[in-house]
Amino acid sequence: MTRHRAQVAIIGGGPAGLLLGQLLHREGIDAILLERRSAEYVLGRIRAGVLEQGTVAVLERAGVATRLREEGLVHDGVEIGFRGRRHRIALKALVGKNVTVYGQTEMTRDLMDARAQSGTTSIYEAEDVQVHDVTGITPRVTFRVHGVAHEIACDFIAGCDGFHGVCRPSIPADRLAVFERVYPFGWLGVLADVPPPWDELIYANSERGFALASMRSPTRVRCYVQCGLDERIEDWSDARFWDEFRRRMCEEVADRVTTAPSIEKSIAPLRSFVVEPLRYGRLFLAGDAAHIVPPTGAKGLNLAVSDVFFLHEALRDFYREHSEHPLDEYSARCLRRIWKAERFSWWMTRQLHRFPGDAFARRMQETELEYLFESEAAQKSMAENYVGLPFQPR
Ligand code: FAD
Ligand code: DHB
Fold first, then answer.
1. N or C terminus of the chain: which is more exposed, having fewer CB within 10 Å?
2. At 130, is the secondary structure helix, strand, or coil?
3. Is 10 exposed, middle or buried (0-12, 13-18, 19+ CB in 10 A)?
4. What is the C-alpha separation between 20 and 57, in angstroms, rounded?
């Protein structure tokens, strides 16, 4: 058995775990990070793309925003496609803020580079990770790497291991309240090297279902279409995807879409999910380990960043001022943002997708979208939520 000691054991090397490690490192708090997969595998997962201004500010503070500032695409508005027309929600003009399009993969790469430079310990391909004694004062984490058993003794465990991780299920079921909604569809996403023929993101509500036109750079697009939960990726050739995407976009956009072989193609189910509280003893949940939003509101990654920002502040205050109070407040502080993001993501999902067999819901959707396009107050409300809540560091 190889024994380690750290102030914090971080389980999960996605954006939440990596960013927490970086923020703690800058506060002089040592953390060992454990990841089940290889670094290459983590970088190969194509996920979110939209960063709120508050998220960019946290990344700046963490010292990992150099490339983001150079390569991130700042967007002052987003568009909603409906009945063949595009309606712009002027984020900057309405609420004075913008969003930055920068892939989760790029953010993850920047964080991995920073971690490598910091000389802190990261252990990839950790198998059979288990947490122990989290209600005592010295929790432990056990795992194996290439057959060798390891143990970390620590003060705190950060459960940043995503929706399918081990941390949340290790909490007794009667200590967590679970709130969940599963949607009857998924998103099929494609990444391809063609210049985007749109300047801003287009969220399209069409008779054939939802579609999203996004981008990663001036030469790379990221596009999605709503699909059935039983669909198989093998049944979606590139040609079928682009044909369906074009049909769901308004004509002037569809006509300008050029295609290229997909670099990545995947299906993700849509779900709303929250557990309360985000703490059990000395185990703290952050990011997708604690909550999931359907991707329509572009909130998942941003919420993971705000959780770990609050967690790093609470741990900093514990070590610096011997104050437990911020740790006690952690869950409630996160949950205020989480529920606002859940509400907005649920609202966006409901307004933009087809819910088969519900004619009443369709009329409500049409009426709500017409109201949105007519009402500056409604647009302002959407813009406020899309750009995210202001960030108030402690
Ligand atoms: P994750 O990124 O899931 O990272 C958790 C890490 O923990 C993973 O690397 C995992 O390998 C590791 N892990 C799991 N179990 C263990 C274990 N037992 N031991 C050690 N490590 C473990 N959000 C958007 O805003 N827009 C999108 O388009 C979008 N698309 C998505 C598509 C998919 C398929 C998924 C799953 C999510 C998507 N999201 C999207 C959400 C967004 O990507 C997440 O909110 C974000 O990745 C959360 O970061 P995280 O670090 O909390 O979790
Ligand atoms: C992207 C993903 C989203 O969920 C979203 O709402 C906007 C953009 C993207 O992958 O680019």
1. N
2. strand
3. buried
4. 15
With a cut of 90, say whether residue 83 has pLDDT above it.
Answer: yes
Do the strands 31-34 and 122-123 form a parallel or antiparallel pair, or are they unpaired? parallel
DSSP 94-121: HHS--EEE--HHHHHHHHHHHHHHHT--
pTM over 0.90: yes
Question: Which burial class, exposed, middle or buried, applies to 373 when counting CB atoms under 10 A from its CB (0-12, 13-18, 19+)?
Answer: middle
DSSP letters for 151-204: EEEEEEEEE---TTSSTGGGS-GGG-EEEEEEEEEEEEEEEE-S--S-SS-EEE
Do residues 267 and 187 touch, judged by C-beta distance below 8 A?
A: yes
- Give the nearest ligand 1 atom to 12 CA: 7
Nearest CA to ligand 1 atom 19: 36
Closest CA to 276 of 168, 140, 188: 168
Only one residue has tokens 């976009």, namely 249
Q: What is the pLDDT of residues 284-315, one digit of tens each?
A: 999 999 999 999 999 999 999 999 999 999 99
Task: Please give the Cα distance from 125 to 55 (Å, whole number).
Answer: 28
Residue 85, token pair as written in the block: 């027309």
Q: pLDDT digit string (tens) for 18-40?
A: 999 999 999 999 999 999 999 99
Contact 26/111 with Cβ under 8 angstroms? Answer: no
pLDDT for 326-363, tens place per residue? 999 999 999 999 999 999 999 999 999 999 888 999 99
* Residues having CB within 6 Å of any atom of ligand 1: 11-17, 34-37, 42, 47-48, 104, 126, 129, 160-162, 164-166, 268, 287-288, 295, 298-301, 304
Q: Whose CA is nearest to atom 8 of ligand 2?
A: 49
Contact 52, 302 (CB under 8 A): yes
Q: How far is CA 152 from CA 7, 11, 155, 255, in A?
A: 10, 11, 10, 57
Largest alpha-carbon pair distance within the chain?
66
What confidence tier does 219 reach under pLDDT thresholds 50, 70, 90? Answer: very high
